[in-house]
Design brief:
Strand content: 15-25%
Number of helices: 14
Helix content: 40-55%
CATH architecture of the largest domain: Alpha-Beta Barrel
Distance between the termini: 38 Å
Structural class: alpha/beta
CATH topology of the largest domain: TIM Barrel
CATH class of the largest domain: Alpha Beta
Number of strands: 12
Shape: globular
């Protein structure tokens, strides 16, 4: 990967994590569990000149995961970042990932380790962009306008959510499925009746089925002209199982949020099973990992659609990632209530006819309203 030249050296004097959690009236519903509150782990880095960068760590599950990730970052990633200057965020990402590899194996938490390093990487790139006075999408050679879609339509009256999101400017939608054939089909029928045949509609099973059940579901789902079927089976099943399902499916398969590491994404591409690939830069990679992966996905002529379901920092970072890679595809924008989306991602770009246009403000282009959130800090 050829990173931008003449990046300022990074000398940090402070690295910290902040945990926020907001109860919500309507939980986020998935096939494997419910979220009764919306958490976020925010990473703040500050250099010796006083410049600041912001990142976010994926932390939706388990319920106590946010607090644990914050402690892990401050115990392991922060000391490593503060120990020396760094020529680029990518060098820091590679070195700290390697340094913590054995720890992840020893404690059985390679995913948690990857997530805390990813959140720190986002913050470092935001810091660099601010130092240079450039938005990240431009620093990475991208264009500011991207497609987005309304994600996470819940299985209870999803047409009501879709109606509201369409009024807000969305033109593509994704439904949560995996709640039984009758309920899934009824929800899809209601959405197709509402949206018409020309509107992109996707579904996400969140790994709900075994391979045989997924195969049985295919003809029922195919009747609704779906743009993709996301995680119908477990993400860690062998690619031979995914290839077999893809060969039988009239709907492109999508996955990637639960893959970790460049080699894992390369294996996914070699398998040919996925029509849509969805890295989550807060679960693995940050920009340093996901930008080169995204460019390989696009070069392989797969749809690159970054995954995100969290607060506003990660959402805007995902938008910059998509803008940097370019090409067809979308970034998902969670349809469910989450005050941390607006407070942490302010100002969020407006959705206009299914697209957003990122600003010229430096770095991520946002200023998290931490003072507004102090009463929610844990």
């Amino acid at each position: 990967m050829n990173w931008p030249h003449d990046l300022p050296e990074i000398r940090l004097r402070d690295v910290r994590a902040m945990v926020f959690r907001v109860p919500v009236d309507k939980p986020v519903v998935t096939s494997f569990g419910m979220m009764h509150s919306r958490p976020s782990v925010v990473v703040r880095v500050e250099d010796t000149d006083g410049a600041v960068g912001w990142g976010e760590i994926w932390c939706n599950f388990p319920d106590v995961g946010a607090e644990h990730r914050a402690r892990m970052l401050e115990s392991y990633v922060a000391p490593a970042l503060l120990a020396r200057p760094w020529p680029t965020p990518a060098v820091a990402f590679d070195e700290i990932t390697a340094r913590l590899h054995v720890l992840g194996l020893q404690c059985g938490e390679p995913g948690t380790i990857a997530q805390i390093v990813a959140g720190a990487d986002i913050a470092l790139w935001d810091l660099v962009g601010r130092r240079l006075g450039e938005p990240l999408w431009k620093l990475f050679g991208g264009r500011p306008k991207i497609g987005v879609y309304a994600s996470g339509l819940n299985p209870s009256s999803p047409e009501q959510q879709a109606t509201a999101k369409r009024a807000e400017g969305h033109r593509a939608f994704k439904l949560k499925i995996g709640f039984g054939l009758d309920r899934d089909v009824a929800n899809l029928r209601a959405l197709r009746d509402l949206l018409g045949t020309g509107t992109p509609l996707m579904v996400d099973a969140n790994q709900a089925w075994d391979a045989a059940t997924a195969a049985r579901m295919l003809p029922h789902l195919a009747a609704f002209d779906l743009a993709w079927l996301e995680e119908p089976i477990a993400a860690d099943l062998p690619w031979s199982a995914w290839r077999k399902l893809a060969a039988a499916s009239p709907i492109p398969l999508a996955a990637g949020e639960n893959l970790r590491g460049g080699q894992a994404f390369d294996a996914a591409l070699r398998s040919g099973a996925l029509g849509v690939v969805q890295p989550d830069l807060g679960k693995w990679g940050g920009f340093s990992g996901c930008l080169p992966v995204g460019r390989r996905i696009r070069a392989d002529r797969r749809l690159f659609c970054p995954h995100w379901l969290g607060g506003g920092i990660g959402l805007v970072a995902s938008m910059h990632l998509k803008a940097a890679v370019g090409g067809a595809g979308y970034v998902e924008v969670d349809s469910n209530d989450n005050p941390l989306r607006e407070a942490l991602g302010s100002p969020l770009p407006a959705v206009v006819d299914g697209t957003v246009t990122l600003s010229e403000r430096p770095g991520l282009g946002i200023e998290p309203d931490i003072d507004r959130l102090r009463r929610l800090a844990i």
